[in-house]
Amino acid sequence: MKVRILEDHVVDRIAAGEVVERPASVLKELLENALDAGSTRIVVHLERGGTALVRVVDDGEGMSREDALLAIERHATSKIRTDADLTDLVTLGFRGEALPSIASVSRFRLRTRPAEQEVGHELGIEGGRLEGVREVAMPPGTDIAVRGLFFNTPARRRFLRTVPTELTHCVELVRREVMLRPDLDVTVRHDGRELLRAPAGEDGARRVAELIGKDVQGALRPVDHAAGGLTVRGWVADPTVTRSSAAQAVYTWVGGRAVKDPLLRRAVLDAARTVGLSGRYPVVALRLDVPPGDVDVNVHPAKTEVRFRDPRAVTDAVAAALHAAWNAPGPRTSASPVPHTAAPDLFSRPARPAPSIPAMPVPLAAAPGPMPAPTPRPEPVVPAAAPVPTPAPPSETVPPPVPKPVPAPTVATQAPAAPTLRFRVGRFAILAVDDALHLLDLHAEAAADPGPSRPLLVPCAVPLPPGSMTALLDAAEALEDLGIGIRAFAPGQLAVTALPAALAHADLPALVGDLAAAAAGGTALSSVLEPHLDLSDDALNAAWIDAGWAAGRTRAVSEDAVRAWWDGS
């Protein structure tokens, strides 16, 4: 086969496959260019989740006609000149691939004007082909509009998700880019409606709280730590405010670049475990600054991951910064974990009193007080009907062949269907069946099926970031299956209209925040219900016990093991 050099337009489309994955990828490149240009005010316009239009208008330094024409050429950039500059990057963009790659798969329009010039210039490009250049009247700055993304590559367009999903990714991207930049004035509009407004001059904690969630308002602590040339700054919430998903809790930046680096996430989670968090993620917004030569940002096509020269020093700095913030005087107790973060081990010796275990067993059967002594038993474990006697002697009313087959199957099928509930310890129920004890995790049963939906007399409005609200509305049918009713209430507010009984007393902002994180992260919605369940209703407990026993979700335990665990001996 003959070797040929690819034509330029083919090379551009190949590069677009790496740079442009979805509308959020386009928005990321345009936002980074606006920030590198020194913009203080940025307006983002989206249509149909960005699939029809992604437009970014900024008040940055702008470009001359010559620079604008060079900007749409491959590997043309103002950020670096030599390979040595790659080890000393101070800008967000540097490859010179973004604009030509985007222009090759869209209808692209670039308008720009430097402050020192009286008029600006407009470039029109369709599918990578320059249509023309003309002078335009415009304020100083740059205005880039990308329409019909992937219009000339239908195979790529078919891989785009629904409008709500693409919009969620776009809004989440903007939130990350501007969260630690209270000096920026940022607006996001979708189909003409304002979705996000972050005015300049806000307090840093307020900016973070508005973009992450109102439940962190008042719980944020400043982080400011320096060691060995590394600095860690930002905000961390008290451990009482957590998330079930790292994607909605751990926000990190390296030198101003928003990243989703596994090393930094692990460092945050390891620090969280030392304050009692297990299975939950602390809410953090951290910027890490390291000497440019000690970090490589050119290791991922989307520039969302970095590589550190000394990973151990980075993790130690993050852990020290978080511990210093949690241990500093603050409005809340820094060592208070969220309740129900982990299930207690039935056969371990818990400290008394344990937070999830009552001082006395909850009596749900006729026997009051603690577990009875081994001998003598005050009452049989199984009700009087449990033994298998012959119900009635054969007489003239019952033919001789009938009595033996009929009672035995009846007792064998009914006894396991109605186990006796001896008592509850925290989230666990101890069941007695025949002469054996069985353990059932009530939280697992209730999380799988929280019970029938009950309409709220007055719907409760919960504030949410636009992206999180879109993700939840997209999952409305799955929430209905769990007995949770929701609807859009107002811009930035979601109304909860119905709840199952097990969630009737839940903290709704925390519950809705966890559900939004699960919906955005693609995890099962039922997996985040456990910390919010209320199992105080004995009638509801009985339904879950019957369901768990019938499905075989119990495990046998010995009476001695239960007593040893309860007594702590």
Question: What does this protein structure show overall?
Answer:
29% of the residues lie in helices and 24% in strands. With 569 residues, the chain is an alpha+beta fold. Among the domains are: 8-198, Histidine kinase-like ATPase, C-terminal domain (Heat Shock Protein 90); 204-327, Ribosomal Protein S5, domain 2, CATH 3.30.230.10; 451-532, MutL, C-terminal domain, regulatory subdomain (Ribosomal Protein S8, Chain: A, domain 1, 2-Layer Sandwich), CATH 3.30.1370. Strands 5-4-3-6-2-1-7-8 form an eight-stranded mixed β-sheet, with helices on one face. Strands 9-10-15-12-13 form a five-stranded mixed β-sheet, sandwiched between helices. Helix 2 (23-36) packs parallel to helix 6 (163-178), helix 6 (163-178) packs antiparallel against helix 12 (466-474) and helix 8 packs across helix 9.
Keywords:
569 residues; alpha+beta; Heat Shock Protein 90; Ribosomal Protein S5, domain 2; Ribosomal Protein S8, Chain: A, domain 1; eight-stranded mixed β-sheet; five-stranded mixed β-sheet; 16 helices; 29% helix
What is the strand content? 15-25%
Give the spatial strand order of the biggest sheet: 5-4-3-6-2-1-7-8
Secondary structural class: alpha+beta
Uncertain residue ranges: 331-392, 394-398, 402-417
Question: What is the overall silhouette?
Answer: elongated
Q: Helicity level, as a percent range?
A: 25-40%
Strand count, sense and barrel status of the largest sheet are: 8 strands, mixed
- Can you give the mean pLDDT? 75
CATH architecture of the domain at 8-198: 2-Layer Sandwich
Briefly note the CATH topology name of the domain at 8-198: Heat Shock Protein 90
Q: Determine the N-to-C terminus distance.
A: 79 Å
Query: Over the alpha carbons, how many angstroms does the gyration radius reach?
Result: 31 Å
Number of strands: 24
Full CATH superfamily name of the domain at 8-198: Histidine kinase-like ATPase, C-terminal domain
* Number of helical elements: 16
Q: Give the C-level CATH assignment of the domain at 8-198.
A: Alpha Beta
